[in-house]
Amino acid sequence: MDDRVSVPGAEQHPSLALVNTVTTQTGGAPLDELDTPEELRKWLLRRALIAPEAELQEHCRSRIVALRESLRIIFDAHAQGDVPAADAVDELNRALTAVPGALLLRFEPTSGFTRSPDHPTTQVIEHVMALIADDAASLLSGHEASMLAQCDASPCSRFFLRTHARRQWCSTRCGDRVRAARSYVRKKAPSVRE
């Protein structure tokens, strides 16, 4: 069974989806969807961010995880109205500039001159990180920035885009869990009789 929760904005923003690949389970244990290079590969394939033949190693996973942690710091600061840590912003900027933006000139006898990016296997992760970092920068500086929020259901730590001003939870599941906990507390509270 797939236990992943889709939150508003994650389909449109790979940066938001990446940040939400690590969550806190009930009881406090972390759950990491990118626990291995193969899990990272599957995650990137589901989002069409890599070619099916791409192979990823542990150093690729650790670089994506480091970007994820910087994004979590930045998103958290934004959601709280705080100043983000400078090193987290620097990490995002390094990812933005890791891949040259120029399209290379190619010549094929059958098609003539064409231009295309050059992303050999050694640059796959840099390319992915640049795409995710660009998405995060656009999200944080664009019209959706004011919609970025963190789920109010403890222990959930997901970020989402508020679809309306009163939305507090990333998913129906989190909202149901909070309402059930409130109901349980009300039922267990001693009744006061006059």
Described by the principal axes of the CA atoms, the overall outline is: elongated
In DSSP terms, counting alpha (H) and pi (I) runs of 4 or more, how many helices? 6
Distance N to C terminus: 51 Å
Share in β-strands: 5-15%
Instruction: Give the low-confidence spans.
Output: none
Short description:
With 194 residues, the chain is of the alpha+beta class. Helix content is 44%, strand content 11%. The chain has 6 helices and 6 strands.
Characterization of the model:
With 194 residues, the chain is of the alpha+beta class. It has six helices and six strands; from the N terminus they run αββαααββαββα. The protein has helices at 14-19, 37-46, 58-80, 86-97, 124-141, 172-188, and strands at 22-24, 30-32, 104-108, 112-116, 148-150, 159-161. It has a two-stranded antiparallel sheet with strand order 1-2. α3 (58-80) packs across α4, α3 packs parallel to α5 (124-141) and α4 (86-97) packs across α5. It is elongated, with a radius of gyration of 21 Å.
